Amino acid sequence: MPETPSRDLPSAERLARFLANPALLARLAREAEGDDPIDWGGLTLDHGAAYELMASQIAEMFRAYEAQGLDHDEQLLLALGTIVKLATESFVLNQRLLARR
Question: What is the pTM of this model?
Fold first, then answer.
């Protein structure tokens, strides 16, 4: 299990720790992959590097939201919307791959 920030900290401080350490965010995401692994399809990508690149971009995006003054409830709504968009994109790409077979 990754070294997650203490649950005793206020949520804003926990979020700040994840945003300051994208590698921690990447490890959390890799753990979430456990029951639903990504089909890398023989790609020669370094899986860890791919996770860290995406985690860095997401952390940067949320640091910008914070700098714009969005409160944590607004950031949560944006995160949920982003998750739905990415899940839908993944679903569509998988359907396209299946249609080609």
Answer: 0.75
